[in-house]
Each structure stands twice: as structure tokens, then as C-alpha cells.
Amino acid sequence: SGDPGCWNMTNINQIIRSHPALHNMRLLLRQHIHKLIKDDEYIVRREFRMKIGREMNIVSPQTFNDKLQWLRFNWYDELAILCSDKYLVREHVSNTIEVDILNELYGVYASVDDIDIHELPDAFVLKANHGSGWNIICTEKPALNWKVARSRLKTWMKMNYYWEHREWQYRDIQPKILCEKLLSEPDGTPPIEYKIFCFNGEPRFTYVCLERETELKADYYDIDWNKQPIRKHYEMSNRVLPKPHNYELMLDISRKLAEPFPFVRVDLYEIDNRVIFSELTFSPGNGMDELIPEKYDWIIGDLLEI
User: Fold this and answer.
1) Which of 41, 132, 142, 188 has its CA 20 to 30 A from that of 121?
2) How much is the pLDDT for 146?
3) Cα–Cα dist 178/153, whole Å
4) What are 197-248's pLDDT values in tens digits?
5) In 111-200, at which residue ranges do the beta strands (DSSP E only) sit?
6) Is the distance from CB of 130 to CB of 157 less than 8 angstroms?
7) Can you tell me the distance from the alpha carbon of 104 to that of 180, in angstroms, rounded to the nearest whole number?
């Protein structure tokens, strides 16, 4: 109906998001429902069809999205599990890369109850090591609603991110909470994030996330730092960024971290002339990113040999 007060799904979602307890209950209920369906391929095929608008092809995959799904069902590596753990990956990075690129770590907690908020600095990030996007960003501690944040962290600790999209690399991670330094540019704005896509151990292009302080924009750059006419979830920015000062070092770091894997995305920052590691991602967008124009799903797919 045209009634603005109509109880449609948009209104319901807005209400749930505005009430932390309801939001947490929905997360746990959603996981419970997902666990009732044991067939991984059924879940993945259904989600792929909803997001991409066609059936996935893992018999003779040609596109990037299809090849990521093929890897999901035909490739397994325990190192990928370790590298998906946002805590354990730190040791792997320090053992692989000669330069110190790890962010400052304030604490690691096996239980939310172990976190003493009074001992933390004024700005920090709390993140769950066993999922994606499970972060509490604190820019000013007096403004943080610790009761709400604590409840959200407790909910995440009860969850297994594997059940969300059936990404096997998350299934056996032991949940922990990390507290890290909040990264920012010298002027206090969020840093640009460089997500370097590596195929069969070689960096091939970079997905750049910027302008988080207003409305997130995202641009693609090829290996020679030429901006490409590709987009997915977010609008492209209206500018061409200068090549990072440490670009060659970033490529070298990515090459070393990606060497064991058929595909991995290496996420890095460059702040105050220093490269800082963010994470490794094996199935960006769960292998279901709608690339625009669509032809780039095939063009990027050609880069991945399986």
C-alpha cells in the first residue's frame, strides 16, 4: 500500500536494527535456521541465484564468481583456515614478511567478560577473529555505549560464521576478541584500504576503498595503477588516486602472502608512509559479487587458473 506507516519488511528491518537486543536475537535465530539445512551446495546455489541472477557453474566454471565457488567445493588448505583467523594470521604474517606490517595489538580475549574497558585507550577497535565484519569501532571511549557493544560481542562469540555462507575456512576457528589500535590518517579520517587481488600467487589488480568518513566509494586499478571502469556494491569515486608511495612493497608483500594459494585477496593500508596489514580474504563477497559491467566477471575469471 501507499501508507507510509505500512508494516513492510523495510520498516521491520529498521526497527530491528535500532534495537540491539532484537538485532542480536535475529542473528542467533538466523544461524539456528541455517544450521537446520545440512546441504551446503543447496544453500550456496540458492544464495548465488538470488545475488547473481543465474545458476552457478562449478562443472566448467569460466567466470570469477563461478571459479570461487569451484574452489569452495574442490579446494581445501589448513593454512587458509589459519589465515582466516584474524588472530593466528598475525603470526603467519610475521613469519613470512621481513618488514613489521602488523597493527598494534592491545589485547586478546577468550571471553568478553575478560575485557576491562577502563584499561583500553580512548580509541580502539574490537574485532571477532572468527567472522567477517564483526567489528566495534570506538573513536572516543566516553561516547561508546559499552553495554550495547558488550552484548553485540557476546552474540558474535556464540556464533560460527561458517553457517552464514558455508565458507569452510571459518568453521573450526576458535572464537576470540582482538583489541587493536584504531587506524586513521594524520588528519583523523579513516585510511584508504588497498585490497590486492592475487591469482595463483601473483598480484593482478587492486580494489581501493576510500571516503569512508562520508559515503564509501570503491575503485579498481590494474597492476600498472590505471583506473578501471568497473564497480560492484559501491559507487566509484570521481578522482584518480596517486599510486601509493610504497606500492612496490605492497605488491611484494602480497606476492609472498599469496604464494601458497590459488586465490587470495591481501588487504593493506598505507598510513604515514608505513604499510599495515589488514587481513587475508579467500572468498570476497562470498564469491557472489555482481560486477558491472558483467563482462568483467569473465575477464577477471580468466586470471584464475584452477
Assistant:
1) 132
2) 96
3) 11
4) 999 999 999 999 998 777 899 999 999 999 999 998 889 999 999 999 999 9
5) 124-128, 135-138, 177-180, 193-199
6) no
7) 6
Cell triple for 202: 601473483
pLDDT tens digits, one per residue of 164-210:
899 999 999 999 999 999 999 888 889 999 999 999 999 999 999 99
Give me the sheet containing 105-109, strands edge to edge.
Answer: 105-109, 177-180, 124-128, 135-138
Residues contacting residue 72 through CB under 8 Å, at least 6 positions apart? 44, 166, 167, 168, 283, 287
Q: Name the phi and psi angles at 179, rounded to 5.
A: -115, 115
Peptide bond into 175 cis (omega under 30): no
In terms of C-beta density within 10 A (0-12 exposed, 13-18 middle, 19 or more buried), how is residue 294 classed? exposed
Cell representation of residue 6: 505500512
> What is the distance between the alpha carbons of residues 282 and 117, in angstroms, rounded to a whole number?
33
Q: For 130-143, what is each residue's pLDDT tens digit?
A: 999 999 999 999 99
Instruction: Indicate the length of the chain as a whole number.
Output: 306
Q: Strands (DSSP E) along 133-251, which ranges?
A: 135-138, 177-180, 193-199, 202-210, 217-222, 227-228
From CA 84, how far away is CA 165, in angstroms rounded?
14
End-to-end CA distance of the chain: 50
Residue 187 grid coordinates? 588528519
Pairwise CA distance, residues 251 & 19, whole Å: 43
pTM, two decimals, is 0.91
Euclidean distance between CA atoms 288 and 65, whole angstroms: 6
Cell of residue 128, nine digits: 571477532
> For residue range 16-28, what is the model confidence (pLDDT) as tens digits?
556 778 888 888 8
- Coil vs helix vs strand at 190: coil
Q: What is the rounded distance in angstroms from the CA atom of residue 120 to the CA atom of residue 105?
A: 11
